[in-house]
Amino acid sequence: VMQDKIICLPHRITSGSVNICEVNRSLLLHMPSNASDVLREMRGVKTNLDLQQYSFINQMCYEKALHWYAKYFPYLVLIHTLIFMVCSNFWFKFPGSSSKIEHFISMLGKCFDSPWTTRALSEVSGENPEEKDQKKSGTSRSNTALSPEESSLEKTQSLRSIPEKIVVDKPSASVLDKKEGEQAKALFEKVKKFRLHVEEGDILYLMYVRQTVFKVLKFLVIIAYNSFLVNKVQNKVCCEVKEIRDVTGYTVFECNHTMAHLFSKLSYCYLCLVAVYGLTSLYTSYWLFYRSLKEYSFEYVRQETGINDIPDVKNDFAFMLHMIDQYDPLYSKRFAVFLSEVSENKLKQLNLNHEWTPEKLRQRLQTNPNNRLELQLFMLPGLPDTVFELTELQSLKLELINNVTIPASISQLEDLQELSLYQCALKLHTSATSFLKENLKVLCVKFDDNRELPNWMYILRNLEELYLSGSLSPDSSKNIVLESLRELNHLQRLYLHNDGTKLVMLNNLKKMTSLIELELVRCDLERIPHAVFSLTHLQQLDLKENNLRSIEEIVSFQHLRKLICLKLWHNGIMYIPEHIKKLSSLERLYFSHNKIEILPSHLFLCNKLRYLDLSNNDIRFIPPEIGVLQSLQYFSVTCNKLENLPDELFFCKKLKTLKLGKNSLSILSPKISYLTLLTHLELKGNHFEFLPQEIGGCCALKRSGLLVEETVFETLPSDVRDQMKAE
Description:
Layout: E1 6-10, H1 20-30, H2 36-42, H3 51-64, H4 68-93, H5 95-113, H6 115-125, H7 129-133, H8 148-151, H9 178-198, H10 203-229, E2 236-240, H11 245-248, E3 252-257, H12 260-290, E4 295-296, H13 299-305, E5 313-314, H14 315-327, H15 329-336, H16 341-355, H17 358-362, E6 366-367, E7 373-378, E8 395-399, E9 404-406, E10 418-422, E11 426-428, H18 430-439, E12 442-446, E13 465-469, H19 481-485, E14 493-497, E15 517-521, E16 540-542, E17 565-567, E18 588-590, E19 611-613, E20 634-636, E21 657-659, E22 680-682, E23 706-707, H20 710-713, H21 718-725
Helix pairs in contact: 4-10, 4-12, 5-9, 5-15, 9-16, 10-12, 14-15
């Protein structure tokens, strides 16, 4: 470009206003054969021009006579090339698109090389991973090119027929160490976040479409004007510049464009190269608009691998996968493994097994209140398979663990009898269902929604205890729990904690005749359910935290000959009906946290009572008939309004626990000494100024069992205090 110039010589022929250049051209075209002698005579003519004048003439003719296309052709090529380069590479530099591409390429390479990909594809294809690992791939991978222009000449196979190529040089794909497992887990999280972010927009697709359309239009413009102007590049140029006649003495010059021949050849070559580039851009345009590139289906991958939960993707995520398919469809296939939840769950399971070894699990074994060896697992991403190697396990407690699947290997836990599920979504293998159906004795389920209740619990024919804590739907059309539970013929203990939601369809309780314990807590009951009176084997009934106001139905309990424990605590009961006397079999009675003001004397005709709790009421007086309860061992009237105690209370000589705290008592009868078996006495929160020294007659009562203010305790004789302090 820097050497581009023309060399001019003056022409002697002058002819007024006649255009000399046109005359010369005409002479050259119509010159007779003998005209060569005339031209020969013109050679060697002296011009008397110096070097500076020649340079001046060359410069003027270069500017005035040379066609602009011949002058600026190299610059046009340079400018067009720069525009093409910027247009093709802009999306690799623009922050909104380049970051997506870089992250995608980075993840793609890691997913392709991950040992987990090889393992997952080997498992679903049914091949031995160790054998597949020995097959070396002859394909060498270079940097991934996204642009179809750069790979349009390559023949890529259909995704349907692409065989799996293993490139991971591991000794065994079936063995995935902890570090590789953690790396694969991190990849799953990155892919999930990347998909969520990229699927929201289509900036990459729009940018690529626009730059491709622009390149096609520019290609057409370049071809059009270059084809028309390429013949303007000539070697000989006639130059007529009248303005310099006074300086040089000439107005017409014959010039030679020194670079014309080279520029002419280069222009044809340039047109050919631009044509090839343009045809590639046209092919890319056809590829872009032939089908929608904003949707990508993994149907072929699902069919080939058997991983059926790989989701289809859209927008920029789909577009980038279409682009990578132009390079090698195998990348998309291996990348799809990290879009599968099934694959992710398998990896989580593998990592769990690495983390929770049988030795670590055995260290967490404890004995629960039912005297069973229990393993409790809390907020894990899944259930480790190593749990089923603890053959001594008797109770399994799972809390806040989602997507738990119990495999057939649970049958190895031959001693398992108790299962607790606290807000866990649990699925069972068919063999596991059969095992639990025969072996499970106790099931505890805590749930937030009816849909979390396991359907298989209704077929546990040997189940003896069932604990349900949650919120059963008040809609009778949806609440099928109680109706289905009546099929559990061996169920002896049923505990329903309903979180304050009204419990309906209670009539189904009638058919659960084998029940010996029933607990209906926070079920919004306003009356005692009549269905309860049909449970002839019932021994214990708990109606805690309901809305009971009246309990006149209590007379029907007389038909329950085996009822020994009745809990009506934490309600709004105003009074105790006289019919209570007919419950002659009662041994434990709970009336705490109600609104009872008067105790009927008939209450104490339940002469088998051993435990009586009347705390947190408004009771002001205890009838002397309490002395009839000769079997009474526990009596509590804390948080009432008592001002005195009947002496008959101290005739209950089997009392071991007596709670009188937070009342208005001021005197404690010396007859307290009758209670020789007393081990716990609560007096704190009253108006006592002193204690009777006869309290020393309570031989079993020690200082730790006496709850009273220290100042009041100090009123006792020193020998009594020493006796009570002695262990």
